[in-house]
Specification:
The protein contains nine helices and six strands; from the N terminus they run H-E-H-E-H-E-H-H-E-H-H-E-E-H-H. By secondary structure, the protein is an alpha/beta fold. The chain is globular and about 50 Å long. Bound molecules: adenosine-5'-triphosphate and magnesium ion.
Length: about 220
């Protein structure tokens, strides 16, 4: 057996087809502002991918997170996308998506989902949210339609419910399941505050993300 020619049985047309080709791909949509991405996001994404045996986690970087924009200035979408790409660093089963940036304007999950469903019709999509986001699902754009269209995966997030072990819940009328993930008490707000006050963010986000924060001089002004 040479390295060039592995010792495999000859394949017929039928045996050459991948076994899973009949199954729809299952992809978890993980949307966020990611300003910046941090280890909480990474651990959530990997734990959900692994627990639910998903083919992929698609990280959707919000173009204009309309529920947040009145509170503070959001970093440019392209910089946030670059930080997500840097955080993922080619990790298997993880993809950064610029779909909401390309769609432009305010980012609405239902519009994104409609777009993805027509672009990739053979895929089953699940929506991944932390406990804080889950409790607000009814405030999302066209929430009734979104609730009919997608199953939600709710992950626990420290500080978001009385009993951390219980995780979060979605409002009535949503199809959802909980997935327990290692509890990581880290937020982008916390990282921005640390940078603004000259404190360390080492190990709270991958070094490649910290490099972009440094180079782009992000978060130096408290806001
Ligand atoms: P910010 O503090 O700016 O709101 P964030 O840390 O909450 O940032 P987002 O981009 O708002 O990050 O969150 C994207 C998604 O990730 C949301 O569904 C949120 O609930 C989830 N998430 C973020 N951090 C964690 C964490 N530490 N544990 C579990 N879920 C998280
Ligand atoms: Mg948040």
């Amino acid at each position: 057996m040479s390295l060039e020619e592995p010792d495999r049985p000859p394949q017929t047309a039928s045996s050459a087809a991948p076994a899973q080709s009949q199954q729809p791909r299952r992809i978890g949509l993980f949307g966020g502002t990611f300003d910046p991405p941090h280890i909480g996001h990474l651990i959530v994404a990997e734990a959900v991918r692994d627990t639910l045996h998903l083919d992929e986690i698609r990280w959707i970087v919000a173009n204009d997170p309309w529920q947040k924009t009145s509170d503070r200035r959001i970093s440019d979408a392209d910089v946030r996308l670059a930080m997500v790409r840097a955080a993922l660093d080619g990790a298997p089963g993880m993809e950064a998506s610029d779909v909401e940036i390309r769609l432009g304007g305010a980012s609405y999950s239902i519009v994104t989902l409609e777009h993805l469903r027509s672009a990739e019709p053979d895929t089953e999509w699940l929506l991944i949210v932390g406990a804080d986001a889950a409790s607000g699902l009814d405030t999302w754009h066209r929430a009734d339609e979104l609730a009919d269209m997608v199953e939600v995966v709710v992950v626990n997030r420290p500080g978001e419910c009385d009993d951390n072990d219980a995780g979060g819940t979605a409002p009535p009328g949503w199809r959802w399941q909980p997935v327990e993930v290692p509890a990581i008490g880290v937020s982008s707000t916390d990282l921005r505050r640390r940078v603004a006050t000259g404190r360390s963010i080492r190990f709270l986000t991958p070094a490649a993300v910290a490099d972009i924060i440094d180079t782009e001089q992000l978060y130096r002004q408290p806001r």
